[in-house]
């Protein structure tokens, strides 16, 4: 390495001169004199010296030398040409140079290394006239990767600098330099590194390390690191600056607007005051007497906005503080409260957080334990079950089986709750003991826990007798996992009101959630808070309204809830709600804190079971309400509906009587339903009519009293009889039905259950038209019912000879004597019909059509048939029988296998009033329908014997 002897100029900290760079520094007079001598003695016009950076004196910043320790003096520097020495003006003018120093300009040439460290005082560095220095040679070519990395880092830094530059000229300069960096060759990369490090800023230590790097690769790496660091520093700085800027400008804007608002309010107030004063001056007496005098001085509740606001906030805070310590809801509440405090009042975000906090704090959260004290109090009452029975009886007539089932249900819920509460209590005691004396309590815990375990697994011999010690209780994980009741039945049969009675018996709040037509999952689970105008779902709303953790929630019309669509899957959300394994952690998207629904008593209602998904049905215990007989309806009307309507229409019970025949007529001729809703409406109509009459009667009396004249007044009769009903309710809606029903060839009455779960009769009409032996089926029929029709016709064709329809065996009655088609129609064409239960009705209709014999209009039938002529059982017997009774059918033909349904489910009075014929085969059904001996049976051979 070539060396030479050069004067050394120590550069005061933190100055560094890099090769290729220029530097102007102030120097003392002594140093300046030495440099002048140097210039005079030198042969060259611009002599060279070694510029060596000095470390910071002790105690001076991060790069300072340790106080007391000798400063580590550098051994690297830069050979620099003296470009200019400027004398201060005072010296030039012959004055003292004390105030203004000399200025020395240097141009860095190449790196040097000192042969031995300098010996000088870093506090008052002097020029060292002669020192041996070695020139650091950097001839090598750096590796490709190093150059690439260097260029990449340099370009990113230059891009950042260009973007951050405020002046366009400077921006252009950085862009130009970036162009040069892109084009630079590998050999010149080290030179470019010197140029760029000198031109950009960087930390002192990094720059010194860069200066000390003799190897080109090392130098480029150091430059790369330095650039990367600089880029990220400048990115972060920029971000912080813009964030600060943004928040400042928002605050300034808000401040400015508030100032304007305050000024406007002041102006309005002054204007208002001046008006009032002028009015008062012009009418001093009137003003003094006016009731609103002085109102301007006192504030109305509308002016007190800020106070109300502060009160609301204080209330919110109190509610958050009242939440259980360490609970999830409290943590969220506290977090949101802090956010609320940070966000300026009046901003949209502030309102959003406040609404959220209001919801969060209004939900009843469990404070401790899983069963509320109020619930336990009710269950502890020894008369609980008898009271519940009395409640159900006082709200509903009949429904004995259902009431028995509900009492069983309540008994189970009570037992489970009590057991759960006892277990919790035991665990709490153990925990308390464990805290007091850990050793003894642990022993006892083992005994108790094993006892609990023994009790649970009494029948399981494989379970070890010693259970693990009782863990600290986790009340929120448990709950009362009773069955979920599902009331299924036609409208108006008392499903909702039974739910209300259960809530009354349990002394809990009752909430009804109507699920009919719910298509959006968010209606159940709530919208996420990121949505505009988001809010919680129906369950949270019901909980808030109930104000208790354990209300009775009636999920009405679960059969009408929507399934998976692009708004999510409401049915799936419902499943989660009703699953006892999951619902202690129900997640409402809006609240976003797990909510414990395990204590809620869910009751579902539905009109039919057909549209309910199997998993949902699986979670529920179905209780069927089929409808009422006329007798039951009469009792319900007399005991419940009439008193209710009298009360709601302002009449006394003693003022109005509706006779039994009148009530029966309302039930039979004005309504035709399984439930009692229309009956209640009709009774309401009668009561309102009478209420008007009563009011007119009272008015007339008052008029007579006032005038003293005898005015002919409308007579008031407190009794409603049959003959009046037509005047009050109009022409009976169902009167003509029985008359319309006719005994005709080819027409038979079948029994059906509608989609609303209501039973009724349906005519099966058939007619013969010229054709080619085909069967035409109409009336919105499904595949199954169509197949039933074909089976029935095949059976009739196969037995045409035995039935006396054809004259020869094997003759097709649809071709001989004339070729015909049979058209079978089930009226109410707009209503879809399906199922196999119309089999015997269709067979009877075909036989009637082909034989000419008629089936009585008082006979209705149901039953599936097979090709062999067997009659197999069908469902919905109770509803169908009730429907037939309502339609005043006298005789019902049913499959033999449905005997037990009639015995169990059909009320005795119906069994007494109607004739039931149970049949095993189609032939028996035909005999029952047409009457024995009506059909000309030739020889009674069953088809099955030939098959
Ligand atoms: N057995 C009964 N005894 C007394 N009142 C009854 C009885 N059954 C129904 N009601 C009365 O009939 C009316 C309608 O009942 P409710 O609203 O419970 O019917 P629902 O089955 O829930 O109907 P929907 O399926 O349309 O919701 C209520 O006023 C109810 O009190």
From TrEMBL:
Superkingdom of the organism of origin? Eukaryota
Q: Where does ATP bind?
A: 489-496
What positions does the domain Lon N-terminal occupy? 6-231
Q: Which GO terms describe its molecular function?
A: ATP binding; ATP hydrolysis activity; ATP-dependent peptidase activity; serine-type endopeptidase activity
In this chain, composition skew of type Low complexity spans 283-300
Keyword vocabulary terms for this entry: ATP-binding, Hydrolase, Nucleotide-binding, Protease, Serine protease
Q: Which Pfam families match?
A: AAA (PF00004), Lon_C (PF05362), Lon_lid (PF22667), LON_substr_bdg (PF02190)
Q: Which residues form a coiled coil?
A: none
Catalysed reactions, as listed in the record = Hydrolysis of proteins in presence of ATP
Q: What is its EC number?
A: 3.4.21.-
- Residue ranges, annotated region (Disordered): 275-308, 460-479
Positions of transmembrane segments: none
The cross-references to Gene3D superfamilies, in alphabetical order and at most eight, read:
1.10.8.60, 1.20.5.5270, 1.20.58.1480, 3.30.230.10, P-loop containing nucleotide triphosphate hydrolases (3.40.50.300)
Keyword Zinc present in the record's keywords: the answer is no
Domain Lon proteolytic: from-to ranges: 742-932
By its UniProt entry, which InterPro entries does this protein fall under?
A: AAA+_ATPase, ATPase_AAA_core, Lon_bac/euk-typ, Lon_lid, Lon_proteolytic, Lon_Prtase, Lon_prtase_N, P-loop_NTPase
Residues at the catalytic site:
837, 880
Q: Name one GO biological process term.
A: proteolysis
**SUPFAM superfamilies tied to this protein:** P-loop containing nucleoside triphosphate hydrolases, Ribosomal protein S5 domain 2-like
Similarity remark: Belongs to the peptidase S16 family.
**Protein name in the entry:** Lon protease homolog
Q: Which organism is it from?
A: Coniophora puteana (strain RWD-64-598) (Brown rot fungus)
